Structures are given as structure tokens and as C-alpha cells.
Structure to design on (228 residues):
């Protein structure tokens, strides 16, 4: 079975632009979470979706938004990009919303660079 | 607010050594704790998950312990190999409705051949 897939793998944007990142969870996983990882730090939670509903939101500005589709894939959108948005964006999927016996499975991420 | 700390930030050991990585968290009200491995430029690979009611979990040469009351977890790696070189991250899921992972900054491990 395929793991969590994210696209694109790399992206270069300029300040003020908009970006859309995509994530396909493992088959059968209904929960998708997004994390931002700045170089040298641990990932920071952005959003969690379960069964197409937002279940959690981290401390990120309203420029960040997300949604989950009926097939459980997800998009992360970031508007008005800033230099500080440069990071590795990770998507994780699980059968349940982060709790229980099942670990979260992560994709390889999208490396976003803002010039 | 939950904070997770990992010490040391970097560790270099010769091949074959047994080693311990440390993780501490400020709020003992957790649902579970996970250890992950991250290779350069890659995503996270889940190594071990410990439920809040458990004391330890083992997988091959890895053993993770959890002392919830003192807010500490350790990851023990036996007979280290160069292929173990990576960044190791611990993360906790808090009890309650918010079930997102809160991560430490990681320990960068280098195993020298």
C-alpha cells in the first residue's frame, strides 16, 4: 500500500504570492494533519481534519487555511506569503484523530522556499 | 501550554555503543508519546508509541520508556550502527479534545563507523 503522498516535493515562491500544497492519506485513513517544520526545529501543528471537518487549529495566522475532500485527501493553502513561511510542510494521516493506539504516518513533505 | 524538550541537541558516538536519548515534557496530562526518526530532507518515521498507561515499548534494538509523573521519556538504542544516524524526535499527544502532536526540537545522532 502507498504511504502518505505529498505534492509538490519542492516549491519556490516570492513574497505576497499564494500557494496550495496537497496531501493524499494512506488508504482507509480518515484523519489528516498538517505541520510546519522550520529548519532545526520540531514540527509545529497547523490543522487537523477528520471526516472532512476541522478538528484542531494551531497558532497560525488566518493566511493559513485547509480543507479535506470526500476522498479524505487534503489541501493546505497559504496566502500573502512571507519569508518566514519558508519551511518543510508535513502531512500526517491516521485512522483516528491523533489518539488511540495508532501512530500518525507522515509523508516526505513539501519544501517551500520564499524569495 | 505543553512544552517538550530534548537533550542533547546533538550526539556523536562510535559504532557499537549503547545510547540513551532524553525527552521531557511539562504537562503530565498526555494521551500518548511517540518517538520518530527523521532523515535529512525527509518526513518522519514512527518508531515507537507508548500509551499513557504503559511504562515502555520495545522494537528490535529500540526501547522507549515513559515516566508520566516526572514528565520524562527515554529512547534506548542498543548496539548503534551508522545507519542509525538521523534526527530523533519525541512528541506527545495531550489529553482532552486537542489531539495534535507537540514535538521537541530533536536530537541529531551521528554514529561513526
Amino acid at each position: 500500500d502507498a504511504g502518505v503522498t505529498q505534492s509538490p516535493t519542492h516549491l519556490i515562491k516570492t513574497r505576497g504570492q499564494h500557494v496550495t500544497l496537497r496531501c493524499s492519506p494512506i488508504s482507509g485513513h480518515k484523519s489528516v494533519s498538517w505541520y510546519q517544520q522550520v529548519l532545526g526545529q520540531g514540527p509545529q501543528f497547523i490543522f487537523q481534519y477528520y471526516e472532512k471537518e476541522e478538528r484542531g487549529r494551531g497558532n497560525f495566522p488566518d493566511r493559513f487555511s485547509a480543507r479535506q475532500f470526500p476522498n479524505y485527501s487534503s489541501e493546505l493553502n497559504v496566502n500573502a506569503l512571507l519569508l518566514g513561511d519558508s519551511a518543510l510542510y508535513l502531512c500526517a494521516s491516521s485512522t483516528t484523530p491523533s489518539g488511540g493506539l495508532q501512530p500518525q504516518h507522515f509523508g516526505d513533505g513539501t519544501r517551500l522556499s520564499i524569495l | 501550554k505543553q512544552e517538550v524538550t530534548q537533550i542533547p541537541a546533538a550526539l556523536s558516538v562510535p559504532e557499537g555503543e549503547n545510547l540513551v536519548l532524553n525527552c521531557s515534557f511539562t504537562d503530565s496530562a498526555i494521551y500518548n508519546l511517540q518517538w520518530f526518526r527523521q532523515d535529512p530532507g525527509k518526513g518522519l518515521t514512527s518508531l515507537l508509541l507508548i500509551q499513557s498507561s504503559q511504562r515502555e515499548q520495545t522494537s528490535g534494538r529500540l526501547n522507549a520508556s515513559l515516566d508520566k509523573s516526572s514528565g520524562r521519556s527515554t529512547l534506548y538504542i542498543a548496539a548503534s550502527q551508522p545507519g542509525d544516524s538521523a534526527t530523533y524526535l519525541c512528541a506527545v499527544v495531550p489529553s482532552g479534545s486537542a489531539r495534535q502532536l507537540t514535538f521537541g526540537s530533536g536530537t541529531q545522532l551521528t554514529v561513526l563507523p
